[in-house]
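User: Please fill in residues for this 356-position structure.
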């Protein structure tokens, strides 16, 4: 199995995960194809965009929500009025289908993972993926968190709608059984997340509270012009970004209305690459590319008047001008009191060979 996520985070590289979730069902209807073909189409588009991993959601409505569970999303975008009804619309895939998708991802060179929402799916997904994803909704489901931690694979843990004590408790529980890379994701459990609720400063807080973990961001805002939300999250320290993925952001229902499409994903990756390019490594040294400018833009000591051979150099004989190819101006005090070995005309850039 591909291990792109772990390899990239271990080398400090940005990771973009396309949360396909169950959006392929709607893509199938729109394109008059099967859900499996739609899922593969979305994988293909993710590959072309340069996305590093795709993630699905694996559940059965009966084990996830009671029939009376209320909705918590924008009812104008997704008119289904209960969680059970919504999940029931999108739960036809099982072990065989996810095996097929895992194999297909492997053949396309993109990492596969899926969020399990019950013990059964956690078990059969184990052989299909290298990384477990624990959703925000299960952060306090300690038995289930422990169960997945004992699989001893890298874990991505979303911390939406959670308090610090709850996050610490789950992180400690995972670390009790699992020493593999652990990615803790800032997340706002609001669909879509208004920009003024994104609270990206929590990324900084998570880095301070959990310095030994990799910090990421699971984004539910609508893609903004310039992708400033994702870029800011990255600059604040979120090296793993997960965002819902669709091929048509105008589709009603489920997770299309706050998702990125393949064009968005490509531009996000290009934007992060540009940030990395301009950010550099932070070393406090003169760059090799600055050497020419350094030599010409800095100043040297220059004769302020004619200096006769044998004269003792005094302050009134010196000034400083460009270029910086002569005696450096920071040696001013050292040069005072030296004798001229030759006649030095006014405006001459001083060299050590002229003085003793």
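Assistant: Residues filled in for all 356 positions:
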């Amino acid at each position: 199995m591909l291990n792109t996520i772990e390899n990239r985070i271990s080398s400090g590289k940005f990771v973009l995960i396309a949360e396909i979730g169950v959006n392929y069902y709607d893509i199938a209807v729109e394109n008059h194809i099967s859900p499996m073909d739609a899922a593969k189409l979305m994988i293909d588009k993710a590959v072309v965009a340069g996305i590093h991993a795709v993630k699905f959601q694996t559940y059965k409505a009966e084990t996830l929500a009671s029939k009376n569970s209320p909705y918590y999303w924008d009812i104008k975008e997704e008119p289904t009025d209960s969680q059970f009804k919504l999940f029931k619309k999108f739960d036809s895939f099982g072990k065989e289908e996810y095996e097929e998708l895992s194999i297909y991802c492997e053949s396309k060179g993109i990492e596969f993972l899926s969020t399990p929402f019950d013990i059964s799916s956690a078990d059969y997904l184990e052989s299909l993926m290298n990384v477990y994803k624990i959703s925000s909704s299960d952060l306090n489901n300690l038995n289930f968190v422990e169960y997945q931690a004992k699989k001893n694979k890298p874990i991505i843990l979303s911390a939406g709608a959670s308090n610090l004590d709850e996050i610490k408790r789950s992180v400690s529980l995972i670390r009790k059984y699992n020493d593999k890379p652990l990615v803790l994701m800032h997340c706002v459990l609001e669909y879509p997340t208004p920009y003024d609720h994104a609270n990206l400063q929590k990324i900084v807080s998570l880095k301070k509270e959990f310095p030994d973990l990799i910090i990421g961001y699971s984004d539910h805002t609508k893609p903004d012009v310039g992708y400033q939300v994702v870029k800011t999250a990255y600059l604040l320290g979120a090296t793993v970004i997960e965002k819902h993925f669709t091929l048509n952001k105008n589709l009603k229902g489920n997770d299309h209305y706050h998702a990125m499409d393949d064009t968005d994903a490509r531009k996000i990756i290009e934007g992060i690459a540009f940030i990395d390019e301009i950010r550099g490594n932070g070393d406090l040294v003169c760059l090799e590319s600055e050497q020419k400018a350094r030599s010409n833009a800095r100043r040297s000591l220059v004769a302020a008047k004619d200096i006769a051979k044998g004269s003792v150099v005094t302050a009134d004989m010196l000034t400083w001008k460009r270029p910086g190819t002569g005696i450096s101006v920071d040696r001013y005090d050292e040069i005072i009191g030296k004798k001229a070995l030759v006649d030095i005309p006014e405006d001459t850039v001083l060299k050590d060979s002229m003085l003793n």
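For context: The longest helix spans residues 262-279.
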